[in-house]
Amino acid sequence: MHSSLAVTTDGLPLGVAAIKFWSRKKFKGARALKTKINPTRVPIEK
Question: Could you tell me where the DSSP H helices lie in 1-46?
C-alpha cells in the first residue's frame, strides 16, 4: 500500500489524501522460491 498524507505548511496533519494498493504477479530471485513452498504442507522431516 502506498499512501499520501496531506499536511499544512506548518506541519499539521490533515489526513490521508490518497491510497494505492498494488501487488506483483511474479516475484524474482530467492524470495520467489520461498513463496512457492507452503510450510504447512512440508513434512517435518524436511
Answer: 30-36
C-alpha cell at 44: 517435518
Considering the entire predicted model, what is its pTM?
0.43
Q: Is residue 31 part of a domain?
A: yes
What residue type is 28 in one-letter code? K
> Tens of pLDDT along 1-46?
899 999 999 999 999 999 998 876 665 665 656 666 666 776 667 6
Cell reading at 25: 504477479
CA distance 14 to 9: 11
Range of the domain at 10: 2-36
State the total domains in the chain.
Answer: 1
